[in-house]
Amino acid sequence: MALSLTNSLSGMYIREVAAAGSSYGIATNVLVPPSTLLTVIQGLQADGMVVTVIEEKLHPDLDPVTAAIAKIGAHCFPSHNEANAISGQGTIALELENEVAQLLAMKPSPPKRNMPGLHAIISIVGTASALCGICMACERTGTRVFGAETVPDPILDTHGPNLSSIVRGEERYDFDVPMGDLPFSTFTARGLLSAILYAEQSTAIRASEALLQQCSVHVTPRDVAPLAVGLYSEDFHRFVRKNVDRGQVVNIGIIVQADQARLGTQRPGTVEFFPGEDLHDGLESLFLC
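RE: above sequence
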Protein backbone atom coordinates (compact mmCIF):
# COMPACT_ATOMS: atom_id res chain seq x y z
CA MET A 1 0.00 0.00 0.00
CA ALA A 2 1.37 3.42 -0.93
CA LEU A 3 0.57 6.86 0.40
CA SER A 4 1.15 9.66 -2.10
CA LEU A 5 0.88 13.22 -0.85
CA THR A 6 0.65 16.53 -2.62
CA ASN A 7 0.20 20.11 -1.44
CA SER A 8 -1.24 22.89 -3.58
CA LEU A 9 0.37 25.65 -1.55
CA SER A 10 3.42 25.85 0.71
CA GLY A 11 3.91 22.27 1.86
CA MET A 12 4.22 23.38 5.47
CA TYR A 13 2.04 20.61 6.91
CA ILE A 14 3.00 17.69 4.74
CA ARG A 15 5.89 16.42 6.86
CA GLU A 16 3.57 15.29 9.64
CA VAL A 17 1.51 13.18 7.26
CA ALA A 18 4.57 11.71 5.57
CA ALA A 19 6.19 10.89 8.90
CA ALA A 20 3.02 9.25 10.19
CA GLY A 21 2.77 7.08 7.08
CA SER A 22 6.43 6.08 7.32
CA SER A 23 6.01 5.07 10.96
CA TYR A 24 3.72 2.29 9.70
CA GLY A 25 6.03 1.25 6.88
CA ILE A 26 3.89 2.93 4.20
CA ALA A 27 5.84 3.96 1.09
CA THR A 28 5.48 7.72 0.75
CA ASN A 29 6.02 9.88 -2.31
CA VAL A 30 5.65 13.64 -1.89
CA LEU A 31 4.59 15.95 -4.72
CA VAL A 32 4.99 19.69 -4.23
CA PRO A 33 4.42 22.81 -6.39
CA PRO A 34 7.28 25.12 -7.40
CA SER A 35 6.21 27.60 -4.69
CA THR A 36 7.20 25.17 -1.93
CA LEU A 37 9.89 26.56 0.36
CA LEU A 38 13.33 25.02 -0.18
CA THR A 39 13.64 24.38 3.55
CA VAL A 40 10.45 22.30 3.42
CA ILE A 41 11.76 20.23 0.49
CA GLN A 42 15.07 19.71 2.26
CA GLY A 43 13.26 18.68 5.43
CA LEU A 44 11.20 16.11 3.53
CA GLN A 45 14.32 14.73 1.87
CA ALA A 46 16.03 14.56 5.26
CA ASP A 47 13.11 12.44 6.45
CA GLY A 48 13.84 10.01 3.62
CA MET A 49 10.91 11.07 1.40
CA VAL A 50 11.05 11.09 -2.39
CA VAL A 51 10.11 14.65 -3.42
CA THR A 52 8.89 15.58 -6.91
CA VAL A 53 8.29 19.20 -7.88
CA ILE A 54 5.18 19.57 -10.05
CA GLU A 55 5.17 22.22 -12.77
CA GLU A 56 1.75 23.33 -14.01
CA LYS A 57 1.81 22.73 -17.76
CA LEU A 58 -0.87 25.15 -18.91
CA HIS A 59 -1.16 26.10 -22.58
CA PRO A 60 -0.30 29.82 -22.98
CA ASP A 61 -3.22 30.40 -25.36
CA LEU A 62 -5.82 29.13 -22.89
CA ASP A 63 -7.13 30.64 -19.70
CA PRO A 64 -6.36 28.59 -16.55
CA VAL A 65 -9.82 27.05 -16.27
CA THR A 66 -10.05 26.02 -19.92
CA ALA A 67 -6.50 24.67 -19.88
CA ALA A 68 -7.00 22.57 -16.76
CA ILE A 69 -10.39 21.18 -17.70
CA ALA A 70 -9.27 20.55 -21.29
CA LYS A 71 -7.01 17.85 -19.87
CA ILE A 72 -10.15 15.85 -19.06
CA GLY A 73 -11.95 16.63 -22.31
CA ALA A 74 -14.36 19.32 -21.11
CA HIS A 75 -14.63 23.09 -20.83
CA CYS A 76 -15.72 24.60 -17.54
CA PHE A 77 -17.55 27.88 -17.07
CA PRO A 78 -17.73 28.55 -13.31
CA SER A 79 -20.50 30.76 -12.01
CA HIS A 80 -18.09 32.84 -9.92
CA ASN A 81 -14.54 34.17 -10.15
CA GLU A 82 -12.57 31.32 -8.62
CA ALA A 83 -10.87 30.25 -11.83
CA ASN A 84 -7.50 29.78 -10.20
CA ALA A 85 -8.91 27.49 -7.53
CA ILE A 86 -10.51 25.20 -10.10
CA SER A 87 -7.47 25.22 -12.34
CA GLY A 88 -4.98 24.69 -9.55
CA GLN A 89 -6.80 21.93 -7.68
CA GLY A 90 -7.92 20.08 -10.81
CA THR A 91 -4.41 20.21 -12.25
CA ILE A 92 -2.85 19.07 -8.99
CA ALA A 93 -5.24 16.09 -8.87
CA LEU A 94 -4.37 15.09 -12.44
CA GLU A 95 -0.65 15.47 -11.84
CA LEU A 96 -0.96 13.40 -8.68
CA GLU A 97 -2.67 10.61 -10.59
CA ASN A 98 -0.10 10.77 -13.39
CA GLU A 99 2.79 10.70 -10.94
CA VAL A 100 1.38 7.71 -9.07
CA ALA A 101 0.90 5.86 -12.36
CA GLN A 102 4.51 6.57 -13.36
CA LEU A 103 5.86 5.47 -9.99
CA LEU A 104 3.95 2.21 -10.16
CA ALA A 105 5.09 1.59 -13.74
CA MET A 106 8.73 1.92 -12.61
CA LYS A 107 8.49 -0.96 -10.14
CA PRO A 108 11.22 -3.52 -10.98
CA SER A 109 9.04 -6.61 -10.58
CA PRO A 110 5.44 -5.79 -11.46
CA PRO A 111 2.86 -8.24 -10.13
CA LYS A 112 1.16 -10.71 -12.44
CA ARG A 113 -2.08 -8.80 -12.20
CA ASN A 114 -2.38 -5.17 -13.21
CA MET A 115 -1.12 -2.79 -10.54
CA PRO A 116 -3.88 -0.29 -9.75
CA GLY A 117 -3.35 3.44 -9.92
CA LEU A 118 -4.74 5.95 -7.47
CA HIS A 119 -7.99 4.69 -5.90
CA ALA A 120 -9.04 7.66 -3.82
CA ILE A 121 -8.15 11.22 -2.93
CA ILE A 122 -8.89 12.91 0.38
CA SER A 123 -9.05 16.62 -0.36
CA ILE A 124 -9.05 19.37 2.25
CA VAL A 125 -10.24 22.51 0.49
CA GLY A 126 -11.91 25.78 1.40
CA THR A 127 -14.43 26.43 -1.36
CA ALA A 128 -16.82 24.55 -3.58
CA SER A 129 -14.96 25.56 -6.74
CA ALA A 130 -11.71 23.91 -5.67
CA LEU A 131 -13.47 20.66 -4.87
CA CYS A 132 -15.34 20.81 -8.17
CA GLY A 133 -12.01 21.03 -9.98
CA ILE A 134 -10.79 17.89 -8.26
CA CYS A 135 -14.09 16.06 -8.84
CA MET A 136 -14.10 16.89 -12.54
CA ALA A 137 -10.48 15.79 -12.90
CA CYS A 138 -11.10 12.51 -11.11
CA GLU A 139 -14.41 11.76 -12.84
CA ARG A 140 -12.60 10.68 -16.01
CA THR A 141 -10.20 8.35 -14.19
CA GLY A 142 -12.71 6.87 -11.77
CA THR A 143 -10.79 8.00 -8.67
CA ARG A 144 -13.04 8.40 -5.63
CA VAL A 145 -13.03 11.85 -4.00
CA PHE A 146 -13.53 12.32 -0.27
CA GLY A 147 -13.89 16.00 0.66
CA ALA A 148 -12.81 16.90 4.19
CA GLU A 149 -14.08 20.38 5.01
CA THR A 150 -14.82 22.72 7.85
CA VAL A 151 -18.39 23.73 8.54
CA PRO A 152 -19.80 26.54 6.32
CA ASP A 153 -18.99 29.88 7.88
CA PRO A 154 -20.06 33.43 6.90
CA ILE A 155 -16.43 34.55 6.83
CA LEU A 156 -15.39 31.77 4.47
CA ASP A 157 -18.53 32.14 2.37
CA THR A 158 -17.53 35.70 1.47
CA HIS A 159 -14.67 34.21 -0.58
CA GLY A 160 -16.98 32.12 -2.71
CA PRO A 161 -19.48 29.26 -2.38
CA ASN A 162 -18.64 26.85 0.42
CA LEU A 163 -19.57 23.18 0.47
CA SER A 164 -22.87 24.20 2.05
CA SER A 165 -24.00 25.40 -1.37
CA ILE A 166 -23.20 21.98 -2.83
CA VAL A 167 -25.12 20.22 -0.08
CA ARG A 168 -28.12 22.44 -0.76
CA GLY A 169 -27.74 21.87 -4.49
CA GLU A 170 -27.52 25.61 -5.13
CA GLU A 171 -24.11 25.81 -6.78
CA ARG A 172 -24.01 24.48 -10.33
CA TYR A 173 -21.14 24.28 -12.78
CA ASP A 174 -22.04 24.15 -16.46
CA PHE A 175 -19.58 22.94 -19.07
CA ASP A 176 -19.64 21.58 -22.60
CA VAL A 177 -18.93 17.89 -23.09
CA PRO A 178 -17.83 16.31 -26.40
CA MET A 179 -20.48 14.12 -28.01
CA GLY A 180 -20.34 10.55 -26.74
CA ASP A 181 -18.29 11.49 -23.70
CA LEU A 182 -19.60 12.14 -20.19
CA PRO A 183 -23.38 11.66 -19.96
CA PHE A 184 -24.18 15.11 -18.60
CA SER A 185 -23.71 18.76 -19.41
CA THR A 186 -24.79 20.27 -16.10
CA PHE A 187 -24.04 18.84 -12.68
CA THR A 188 -23.51 19.60 -9.04
CA ALA A 189 -20.28 18.48 -7.41
CA ARG A 190 -22.37 16.64 -4.80
CA GLY A 191 -23.12 13.95 -7.36
CA LEU A 192 -19.40 13.26 -7.85
CA LEU A 193 -18.40 13.17 -4.19
CA SER A 194 -18.09 9.92 -2.28
CA ALA A 195 -18.68 11.79 0.96
CA ILE A 196 -18.57 15.28 2.43
CA LEU A 197 -16.83 15.15 5.77
CA TYR A 198 -17.45 18.05 8.13
CA ALA A 199 -14.99 18.81 10.91
CA GLU A 200 -17.14 20.96 13.15
CA GLN A 201 -20.69 21.22 14.44
CA SER A 202 -22.63 24.47 14.05
CA THR A 203 -26.12 25.90 14.42
CA ALA A 204 -26.54 25.78 10.65
CA ILE A 205 -25.66 22.10 10.56
CA ARG A 206 -28.03 21.21 13.39
CA ALA A 207 -30.84 23.21 11.79
CA SER A 208 -30.33 21.36 8.50
CA GLU A 209 -29.73 17.95 10.03
CA ALA A 210 -32.56 16.23 8.16
CA LEU A 211 -31.37 17.59 4.80
CA LEU A 212 -27.78 16.64 5.52
CA GLN A 213 -28.81 13.08 6.34
CA GLN A 214 -30.63 12.84 3.04
CA CYS A 215 -27.41 13.91 1.33
CA SER A 216 -25.38 11.25 3.21
CA VAL A 217 -23.22 13.88 4.87
CA HIS A 218 -21.11 12.56 7.72
CA VAL A 219 -21.05 15.07 10.61
CA THR A 220 -18.17 14.62 13.05
CA PRO A 221 -17.11 16.16 16.40
CA ARG A 222 -15.51 19.58 16.20
CA ASP A 223 -12.29 18.52 17.95
CA VAL A 224 -11.15 16.27 15.12
CA ALA A 225 -8.94 17.76 12.39
CA PRO A 226 -10.15 17.50 8.76
CA LEU A 227 -7.60 14.89 7.68
CA ALA A 228 -8.33 12.75 10.73
CA VAL A 229 -12.01 13.10 9.86
CA GLY A 230 -11.27 11.63 6.45
CA LEU A 231 -9.30 8.75 7.96
CA TYR A 232 -11.87 8.01 10.65
CA SER A 233 -14.99 8.28 8.51
CA GLU A 234 -17.13 5.19 8.05
CA ASP A 235 -17.54 5.99 4.35
CA PHE A 236 -13.79 5.98 3.80
CA HIS A 237 -13.17 2.88 5.92
CA ARG A 238 -15.91 1.03 4.05
CA PHE A 239 -14.30 1.96 0.75
CA VAL A 240 -10.84 0.80 1.86
CA ARG A 241 -12.03 -2.43 3.50
CA LYS A 242 -14.04 -3.35 0.42
CA ASN A 243 -10.88 -3.27 -1.68
CA VAL A 244 -8.63 -4.85 0.94
CA ASP A 245 -11.04 -7.75 1.36
CA ARG A 246 -10.69 -8.40 -2.37
CA GLY A 247 -6.92 -8.59 -1.99
CA GLN A 248 -6.62 -5.30 -3.83
CA VAL A 249 -3.72 -2.90 -3.34
CA VAL A 250 -5.16 0.47 -2.30
CA ASN A 251 -3.34 3.69 -3.15
CA ILE A 252 -4.58 6.82 -1.37
CA GLY A 253 -3.74 10.40 -2.33
CA ILE A 254 -4.15 13.34 0.03
CA ILE A 255 -4.30 16.94 -1.17
CA VAL A 256 -3.47 19.32 1.66
CA GLN A 257 -3.93 23.10 1.55
CA ALA A 258 -1.93 25.28 3.89
CA ASP A 259 -4.80 27.75 4.23
CA GLN A 260 -6.92 24.94 5.69
CA ALA A 261 -4.44 24.44 8.50
CA ARG A 262 -6.93 25.34 11.18
CA LEU A 263 -10.40 24.21 12.05
CA GLY A 264 -13.57 26.22 11.85
CA THR A 265 -13.17 29.82 10.73
CA GLN A 266 -9.35 29.73 10.95
CA ARG A 267 -9.45 32.40 13.66
CA PRO A 268 -6.44 32.64 16.02
CA GLY A 269 -6.53 30.12 18.82
CA THR A 270 -8.26 27.32 16.92
CA VAL A 271 -6.88 23.80 16.91
CA GLU A 272 -3.79 23.20 14.75
CA PHE A 273 -4.21 21.04 11.69
CA PHE A 274 -2.50 17.75 12.51
CA PRO A 275 -3.19 16.71 16.11
CA GLY A 276 -0.28 14.28 16.44
CA GLU A 277 -1.76 11.25 18.16
CA ASP A 278 -5.10 11.63 16.42
CA LEU A 279 -3.36 11.52 13.04
CA HIS A 280 -1.33 8.43 13.94
CA ASP A 281 -4.40 6.68 15.34
CA GLY A 282 -6.29 7.53 12.17
CA LEU A 283 -3.56 6.14 9.93
CA GLU A 284 -3.33 3.01 12.05
CA SER A 285 -7.06 2.34 11.93
CA LEU A 286 -7.09 3.02 8.18
CA PHE A 287 -4.09 1.07 6.97
CA LEU A 288 -4.26 -1.77 9.45
CA CYS A 289 -8.00 -2.41 9.03
